[in-house]
């Protein structure tokens, strides 16, 4: 394996290579590549997001973060269908990331619920032909993040321009990396084959409904940062029932640990507050397990929120919304599956009687 190929690996295979190295020299090579890869990613994030913020404004930093995440994603993960359909799907994704948040933020909670359900459903169907790819979470995450930071006037115009440029960048990378793959599936087939009796489509609708309803409750009681509820629900609503239970066990505890550690660090070492963003990004790059990634992810989220709500108010809110979002999602998962089971059984009985 070349050094460049090593730099493309995720933490889990990296750690496996380090553990199974045949010599100290080989182990040092893997460790060096692992550290360098994470440093380069963080430096790229700082330059990319910082540069975008200088051009399009700090108020549009959420878009820069989303484009950065998608840019990293499309280098490795396609949509599972032929290239023209994939590029058109990517265009639709960026269109939803532009229009969906604008409509949602101008609506009352009831219309916002409908807009969220439609937007997230479309994002799931467009990007998740193969759930094992796991790429759909990035696009839904992007939608939730952007809608949490509304802008108007010239900043909105700059946001639309930034998203448009982001689509061009991601589209070019997507084409270069995936145009030689030969898939027979077209985007039209994805919608033509849609069925509530298909497990994948059932799960996609479950995610859209579960995330939207969880955030709807937050909107009704005027809770700030409802996107945190959405993130927690999105994390729990996995396609595999075993993974749902596993995420439920990990989501809230890891959020509690990460939030409290952030609070302690900020209280004891306030002078390093400005460095916690890059530090958390670097630490997440070394994590191979979900619970530690989620714990360190709290640092970046709380860094922004603490400047608005105060340190310990933000920590309390982060913990509370993660607990609510994850347990609401689990309860919705049980109810939804039971309803779908009854629905499928009724349909089966009807077909038998005919």
Automatic annotation (TrEMBL):
Top-level lineage group: Bacteria
Keywords: Membrane, Transmembrane, Transmembrane helix
Localisation: Membrane
Integral membrane bound transporter domain boundaries: 213-330
Membrane-spanning residues: 30-56, 62-80, 87-104, 110-129, 255-274, 319-336
Chief place where the protein resides: membrane
Pfam families per record: FUSC_2
UniProt keyword annotation of Transferase present: no
The name this protein goes by in its record: FUSC family protein
């Amino acid at each position: 394996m070349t050094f460049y190929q090593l730099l493309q690996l995720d933490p889990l295979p990296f750690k496996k290579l380090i553990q199974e190295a045949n010599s100290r020299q080989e182990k040092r090579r893997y460790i060096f590549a692992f550290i360098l890869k994470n440093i380069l990613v963080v430096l790229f994030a700082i330059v990319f997001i910082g540069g975008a913020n200088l051009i399009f404004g700090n108020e549009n930093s959420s878009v820069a973060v989303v484009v950065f995440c998608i840019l990293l994603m499309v280098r490795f993960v396609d949509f599972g269908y032929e290239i023209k359909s994939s590029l058109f799907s990517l265009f639709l994704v960026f269109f939803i990331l532009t229009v969906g948040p604008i409509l949602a933020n101008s609506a009352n909670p009831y219309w916002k619920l409908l807009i969220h359900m439609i937007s997230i459903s479309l994002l799931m169907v467009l990007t998740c032909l193969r759930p094992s790819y796991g790429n759909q979470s990035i696009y839904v995450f992007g939608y939730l993040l952007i809608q949490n930071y509304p802008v108007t006037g010239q900043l909105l115009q700059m946001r639309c321009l930034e998203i448009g440029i982001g689509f061009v960048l991601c589209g070019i990378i997507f084409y270069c990396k995936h145009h030689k793959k030969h898939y027979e599936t077209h985007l039209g087939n994805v919608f033509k084959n849609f069925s509530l009796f298909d497990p994948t489509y059932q799960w996609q609708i479950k995610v859209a409904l579960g995330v939207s309803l969880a955030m709807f409750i937050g909107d009704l009681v005027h809770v700030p940062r409802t996107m945190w509820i959405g993130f927690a629900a999105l994390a729990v609503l996995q396609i595999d029932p075993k993974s749902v239970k596993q995420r439920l066990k990990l989501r809230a505890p890891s959020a509690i640990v990460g939030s409290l550690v952030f609070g302690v660090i900020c209280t004891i070492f306030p002078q390093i507050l400005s460095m916690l963003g890059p530090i958390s990004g670097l630490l997440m790059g070394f994590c191979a397990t979900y619970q530690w990634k989620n714990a360190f992810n709290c640092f970046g989220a709380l860094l922004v929120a603490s400047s608005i709500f105060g340190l310990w108010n933000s920590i309390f809110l982060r913990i509370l919304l993660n607990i609510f979002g994850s347990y609401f999602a689990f309860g919705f998962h049980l109810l939804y599956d039971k309803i779908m089971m009854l629905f499928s059984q009724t349909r089966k009985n009807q077909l038998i009687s005919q």
